[in-house]
């Protein structure tokens, strides 16, 4: 997939995530930097940290929220393990969380970044390389 298509697909997924968040979905991330990045990307709804409580009790609290749960942990080994544990525990409480964003973003960016906090700079890099003529014009205007 070329950089332009990859960029557009990542942007589409972020837009969908924003909409789900506005509709009340709870986005589960690993830490504050992940939250900060999602806020910069326009996600305004509820974001919670999976690493502040034991996984079982955290999952129990999530299951009582009666909201869609979107798991968006990092794409490294630790993030994958955490996502798997969350899935198992939430399902034991009768909740089926959404892993779609995690799975699709991972397939698009895994070669280049390993975590949610890197998404904004990744998008910036893709834009820079996907539209080089626009960037040359920007640099020309910026240096004047």
UniProtKB/TrEMBL annotation:
Membrane spanning residue stretches: none
Listed Pfam families: Toprim
Entry annotated with the keyword Cell division: no
CDD domains, sorted: TOPRIM_RNase_M5_like
Signal peptide interval: none
InterPro entries: TOPRIM_dom (IPR006171), TOPRIM_RNase_M5-like (IPR034141), UPF0292 (IPR022972)
Single GO term (MF): metal ion binding
Keywords, in A-Z order: Magnesium, Metal-binding
Domain Toprim: 24-105
Protein family according to the UniProt entry: Belongs to the UPF0292 family.
Name of the protein: UPF0292 protein GIS02_00345
Species per Swiss-Prot/TrEMBL record: Candidatus Ethanoperedens thermophilum
